[in-house]
Amino acid sequence: MLMKTLLVELGDRSYPIYIGSGLLNQVELYTQHIKSSQVIVITNSTIAPLYLDQVLNNLRNFKVETLILPDGEQFKTLDYVTQIFDKLLSCKFSRNATLIALGGGVIGDMGGFSAACYQRGIPFLQIPTTLLAQVDSSVGGKTGVNHALGKNMIGAFYQPQCVIADADVLNTLNDRQLSAGLAEVIKYGLIRDIEFFEWLEQNIELLLARDKEALAFAIERSCLNKAQIVAEDETETGIRATLNLGHTFGHAIETGAGYGVYLHGEAVAIGTCQAADLSRRKGWLTDADVERIIALFKKANLPVNPPEQLDSDSFLDLMAVDKKNIDGKIRLILLTKIGVATLPIGIDTLLLEQTLNSYGR
Ligand code: NAD
Ligand code: GLY
Predict the structure, then answer these.
(1) Residue 134 in contact with residue 125, Cβ under 8 Å?
(2) In the chain, N or C terminus with fewer CB closer than 10 Å?
(3) Among 73, 184, 220, 234, which one carries the catalytic annotation?
(4) pLDDT of 144-169, one tens digit each?
């Protein structure tokens, strides 16, 4: 596979997304973005035995430290970010040191947030190792951690120097994780790219079978959509919020069930079906549209119904903690048709309760 390079255009903070095969071993991809002798690689206990040595091989000319964190969404907390700060400080890392985040969205979000805060900001590189991280979380500079009362509630916008997305690393991802990544891939089709949505309907089996060409196309098309959105609205004052389709429901599911019970992509899949149901109640989607959306998530082996233990009151309580809310009022992204999303809109509580009480119940 040839390497493709996309650019996230943000003026003097623009950066490339490298997508391809065998990229983990391409020394120059790293070295051209490292302007210091001190480098720290942050990863977790699952990824380290698989890929850490390959990454370290490229960094022989640097003074490299590594920090291996425990694996799991439940460890995406300020406590573990503090461990990163402890390591950086005890190794006397300076302000020009470079942080490399090697992992899925959890490591990428925590590594990025640590880089944003350490000495008010040090450069960092994203090496995403899950499909979800390659198509979404490593691009666009949203970094942060969870709080017991709300998902991703503590964070910063902070862009990386580059993103190195090596599709080969997806070979070791389990099927459940691969499907979770597909939830965010499907999202791009739903919010702004009907042609891609139709392609996904035709090719989802190839993606599940890890066909290299199909995966490369899906990663590139997703990153292209994301890069365009981020270039237009880096700090989410408008269109970037559409990337949160289904996420307010999804975050409530993740927080309500306990971090780590549902994978992020699984919760997003369920939440997107709930958002589709609500869009139908608004009169925008037809029954057939909603069935088509649910069918694609099901074909991708994703859950589509909310957990039984979360009743509508619990949902409403959890959804009241969301970054899109204004004056404590819930605002959601809905679909006016497949391929077109709204900006965040206030929702009539009765209508929202109808979805919460009936969809998937
Ligand atoms: P994750 O980081 O927990 O990774 C999923 C699992 O796969 C973990 O167990 C991990 O150790 C393992 N893994 C990673 N790469 C592997 C590989 N190549 N082979 C084998 N196992 C591997 O989860 P995720 O789905 O990548 O990311 C979810 C997180 O991303 C959530 O915290 C979510 O909030 C965040 N997110 C952030 C953004 C953003 O814009 N910053 C966007 C979407 C999601
Ligand atoms: N994943 C949502 C965003 O980057 O805005």
Answers:
(1) no
(2) C
(3) 184
(4) 999 998 889 999 999 999 999 999 99
> What gap in Å lies between CA 76 and CA 89, rounded to an integer?
20
- The whole-model pTM stands at 0.97
Rounded CA-CA distance 69/84 in Å is 9
Atom of ligand 2 at shortest range from CA of 142: 4
Same domain assignment for residues 187 and 246: yes
- Pair 151, 193 in one domain: no
Would you state the pLDDT for residue 291? Answer: 98
State which of 106, 143, 215 you would mutate to test the pocket of ligand 1, scoring each by most atoms of that ligand within 8 A of its C-beta. Answer: 106
Q: Which helix (H) or strand (E) holds 203?
A: helix 194-208
State yes or no: is 63 an active-site residue: no
Dihedral sign for Cα 234, 239, 241, 247, please: negative
Calpha distance 139→264 (Å, rounded): 16
Name every residue whose Cβ is closer than 8 Å to that of residue 263 and which is 6 or more positions away in sequence. 73, 176, 177, 180
Phi, then psi, of 63 in degrees rounded to 5: -90, 105
Tell me how far the alpha carbon of residue 183 is from its chain's centroid. Answer: 10
Give the mean pLDDT of 312-337: 92
CATH number of the CATH domain containing 222? 1.20.1090.10
What tokens does 26 get? 């391409």
Domain count, the chain: 2
In eight-state DSSP terms, residue 77 is S
Which of 125, 145, 172 marks a domain boundary?
A: 172
Instruction: Please report which residue ranges of 241-263 form alpha helices under DSSP H.
Output: 247-257
Gap between the Cα atoms of 172 and 178, Å rounded: 10
